[in-house]
Amino acid sequence: MAQCIFENLIFGLSFIVPLCFVPGCTGVGIAINGITTNYGIIMNLSDSLTLKCTAVNNTQDEELVWIRDDRVINLKSLNRINVSTVCVDPITVNDDEVTFSCRLNKDSNINTTVQLDIKFIPILSSDGDNEIEVVAGNDVDITCNVKSNPPAVMYWYKDNNTLKMTAGKHSVHWDSGVFRLSIKKVQKMESGNYVCMADSTLGSSNQSFDLIVKDKPYELPIEPIVAGLVVVVLSILFGIIARRKKVMQLCRKKTNTSTFVEYDTQ
Question: Low-confidence residues of the chain, pLDDT below 50?
Answer without folding.
Answer: 1-25, 258-266
